[in-house]
Amino acid sequence: MTALELARQIRGGERRAIDVLEEHLARVAQHEAQIHAFNLVTADEARAAAHRVDEAIARGVDPGPLAGVPLALKDNLCTRGIPTTCSSRILEGWRPPYDATVVQRVLAAGAVPIGKTNLDEFAMGSSTENSAFGPTRNPRDLSRVPGGSSGGSAAAVAADFAPLSLGSDTGGSIRQPAALCGVVGVKPTYGVVSRWGLVAFASSLDQVGPFAADVADAALLLEVIAGHDSHDSTSIPQPAPALSAQLDRGVEGLRIGRITDLPAGAAPDVVARLDAAFAALEAAGARIVDVRVPAFTYGLTAYYLIAPAEASSNLARYDGVRYGLRVPAADTNAMYAATREAGFGAEVKRRIMLGTYALSAGYYDAYYGKALKVRRRIADDFARAYEQVDALLTPTSPTEAFPLGDKTADPYTMYLCDTYTIPSNLAGHPAMSVPFGTGAAGLPVGVQVLAPTLGEPVMFRVAAALERSMAGVGGAR
Amino acid sequence: MTDGLPEGWELVVGLEVHVELATRTKLFSGSPNRFGDDPNVHIDPVTLGLPGALPVLNRQAVELAMRIGLALHCTVQRCTFHRKNYFYPDLPKAYQISQYDQPLNVDGDLALPDGTRIGIERAHLEEDTGKSTHLGGAGGRIHGSDASLIDFNRAGVPLVEIVSRPDLRTAEQARQYVTELRAVLVAIGASDAKMEEGSMRVDANVSVRRFGEPLGTRCEIKNVNSVRSLGRAIDYEARRQVDLLLDGNSVRQETRHWSEADGRTHTLRTKEDADDYRYFLEPDLVPVDPDPAWIDRLRRELPMLPAQRRQRLAEATALAPYDDAVAVIVERGQDDYALEAIGLGGEPGRVAVHVQQGFAEQGPRPAAPASALAALTRLEVGGALTATQAKVVLGDLLERGGGDPAAIAAERGFEALDHAELDAMVDAAIAAQPEAWAKFAAGEAKAGGALVGAVMKASGGKADGKAVTAALQKRRDSALG
Prior knowledge:
The structure holds 2 protein chains of 2 kinds.
Chain A: H1 3-11, H2 17-35, E1 38-41, H3 43-58, E2 70-74, H4 101-108, E3 112-117, H5 151-158, E4 164-169, H6 175-181, E5 184-187, E6 207-212, H7 215-225, E7 255-259, H8 268-283, E8 287-291, H9 299-314, H10 332-343, H11 346-359, H12 365-385, E9 391-395, H13 411-415, H14 422-427, E10 431-438, E11 444-450, H15 456-472
Parallel strand pairs in A: 2-3, 2-4, 7-8, 7-9
Antiparallel strand pairs in A: 1-3, 4-6, 5-6, 5-10, 9-11, 10-11
Helix pairs in contact in A: 2-3, 9-11, 9-12
Chain B: E1 9-20, H1 59-71, E2 75-76, E3 82-85, E4 95-98, E5 105-111, E6 117-127, E7 131-135, E8 147-151, E9 158-164, H2 171-187, E10 200-210, E11 219-224, H3 227-246, E12 254-259, E13 264-270, E14 280-281, H4 292-301, H5 306-317, H6 324-331, H7 335-343, H8 348-358, H9 370-381, H10 387-400, H11 405-411, H12 419-432, H13 434-441, H14 448-459, H15 465-480
Parallel strand pairs in B: 11-12
Antiparallel strand pairs in B: 1-9, 1-10, 2-5, 3-4, 3-14, 5-6, 6-9, 7-8, 10-11, 12-13
Helix pairs in contact in B: 2-3, 5-6, 5-7, 6-8, 7-8, 7-9, 9-10, 12-14, 14-15
C-alpha cells in the first residue's frame, strides 16, 4: 500500500499507526535475515512514535501528512541518541546528540522511523558491499546487489519493510539503487534539502532524497523534507516546491531531450527500455529533441577527483579521540594510525589517499583544479541543452542489478555504474530514477529524468507520465 | 631609535596579527564567545566538528571584520572561505575555515604616530582553534609530553588576521604598529586585543638585507606575548641573521619560536617540513558579498580613530600629537573629558598635565566633572594654588566625585602666601644654610634645592616650588648686580 493511502487511512481513523507498524515489523522479522537492509531496527522507538500518532489522532490532532507511515533512514543521517554508523567501524558506539534536519521534519510530519539502513561505508560505493557490517541483498534477486550506496534504503522499500525511506546521493547513490531495486529514487537540486545532520562524504555534491514505491509517494516525502534550513548555509532560501499538484498535468507540449553524445556502456536491454520511455512520452504528447551535452562524458573522471578531495578533508576528523572507535596504542600517533587502520575499509582508504593527492601542492592544478573546470563545463553544457528542452532522459544504471562480488575486485568497473548519474551532482541539478520495466535478466530497469536547477516540478511531471504509461501496459506494480 | 644592526644593513619586518573578535557567539555556531570560563563548556556539534554538523557564518563577526577593514582603509570586497587542512588535536574538524585567495579586506594602511604609513596587505576572517595544554615533558610542547588537555571553548572563536606589508624597518616601528593597531581595534569595538590573554597574537616575519638589495630570506617568529617581547625578538632575530650572513652562511626559511626565558629564537619547523594545507573552497559555506549600502553604513558608524583623537587633543593643548601626555590621555579614552574641561575654560596645559598624571585610575568618565577640573586649573594659573596644592585638591575632587575646588582649598587651609610671608621664609632659609646659599650664589643650581626644600617645609606646602626658586634667583641676581 502506498504511503499516501496509509496516511489517509490513519489520519481518517480507519487504521491505527501501531497496527500498520507491526505489519511492517513482521515483514522485517521474516525477510531481514536474507536481505540485511538494516544496520539497526529501532522497534521500541518506532512503537513509541506510532503510539504518539495514535494518541494525537484520538485527541483530534492531525499528526501530519506522513501520519503513521513507517520510514527507513540511511545510516548516515544523524539520529539523536540512536547509533549512526555510516556502516563504518570508525563510528562504533557513537550516538549523535542531535537529529538531522530531515529526521526532524519526517518526525514532525508524523512518520514512524523504523531503523537505520545499510550503506557502502561513508556512502562510497555502488553496491552496498563496502559496508563494515556485510552487504545488503537485492530483494528482487537475493544473489544480486541492491546498488549503492543507499542500497539498504532502496531494499527496504523494495521489500516493503517501509513504504518510504531516505537516502543520500553524491554521485548516484539514491538513483542507481532505486533503479536496481525497482523503486523511485530522487536526488533533489543541491540546496533544496538540508544537509544538517547528514554525515558528509563530498559536501558540494551530497544531497538527501526520498525512496518510494511510486512517484506520488516520492513527491509527498520530498515535499516534507525540502525547504530552507538556517542550519545549512547552502540551503536554498525557498519553501519546499509543490510537487504533488504537478503529477496529473501530463507532458503535452514538453520538450524532452535525448543526449546524442551520451557515453557508451549501457547494456542493450537498458537502451531498449530508454527508447521505450522516449516513445511513451512522445505518445503522451511530448516532443523528443536531440541535444548534445559534450562534457557529460568527463563527469566520471572529474567526480573521482572532486569527491575524494572533499572526502579526504571531511574524514580527517575521525581520529579516535572525541567519539567513535579508539584502538589503544603506545602513544597518540600510534593510536591515530591503529584506529584508522582498523576503522576504515579499503575503499574509504583508497579515496582518502586519492583525494589527498589530488589536492596536494604541485598536483592541485593538474587534478583538482582541472576537475573543477570540467565541472563548470558540464554545468555550461547542460545549460545550453536546457535552452532547447525542459528535461532530459538517460539510463539510470548501465545494467540491471549485478551479482554480489561481480565488481569488487576492480574498483574502476564499479565506478562506471555511476556514469549516467554523476553529471547531475556535479551540476547541482535534480534527477530521479523511475522504474520502467525489466531487462534481459527480468530485473528492474530504471529510466533517469534530469531537469535544470529547481526543475523538480517538470521532472516529477515527466516521471509521473512514465509511470502512467507503464500502468497502461500493465507493467506497474 | 636604532635597530642595532651594523652599518649598511637594513631590517625588514612584516607582522601577522590575529585578533579575537568581540562577538557574542562563535564564528560558525551559537556557542558563547567567552574567555576564562571552565574548560569545554562553550561547545556544540559545530564547535566539536561532530559528523553532520555544518557551519553558519556569524553576521556580527563579518560586521566587526568589515569595521577593521574600513578603519585600516582597506577595500572591502566579495569574499570566499577555504578549508586549510592540517591535523592537530586542538583542531576538531582537522581543517580550519579561513580565507585564502579572496579575503574580505585588502590593500589598506595604518599610520604610525609619526605619520609613517605601513601597508596592510589583507585582513581576513577565520576561526580560532582549541587550546592545548601539554603536561609533562619539556617546555610545554606536545613532543615528549605525558598527556595533552584540550579546551574547545576557544575553538571556533572568530579571528581576524591582519597581515602587514614588509614596511617596518625597526623593532621600535613594529612596537608602535602593534600599539597603534591595538588602539584602533579597541576604539572600534572589534576586540579587546589583549596580548596577555591571547586575544591579540603577533607573529613577525623578519629578514635583513644590505641597503638597496632585494628582500632577504625571512623567518617567521612565533610565541611573542607582549609588545616588549616583540621588540626583543625582532632585534635578536635580525642580529642572528646578520651574523649568519656576515659569516658567509645563508638564512634558512623557517618558523622560529621566541623563548622569553633565554631571549633567543629557536627553530620550530623548517620550510621542508611545513604542512601542505591543501586549501580548497569550503563547500559548506557560500561567498559573502557585502553590498555597498552595508559598507557605507559601517563606514559612517566608525567612531573617531586614535590618530584623529590625538590630533584633536594636540591642537587644543598646543602639544605635539606624539607627545606622551596626548598619547596616554587618548589611550585611556579621556580625551573627550580633557577637551570638555578646556572648553569650560580650563587652562589647556594644566588640564593635560592633571589628566595624564592624576587620572591613571580613572576611566573615560572620571569621577569629578570636567567643570571642576577647569575651575581647578583656573585657580592654579591665577596663583591661588600651587601645583602641589592643586594635586591635593584634585585628589579630593576625584574622591568626592566633584565639588568646588576653591572651597576644598579653603578647607585644606590652602591660601596663597603673600609676598612678604614668602620673602621672610626665604630670608630665614638663607640665614639657616649660609653654605648652601654661597654655593647657589656662585652658580651651583643644585645647591638651591636645599633652600627651596626648607622654604616648602616652613610653608607647610603652601609655597609654590617655582615661586621659591624664582625668589632665590632674584636675590642672587640682585646680589650680583
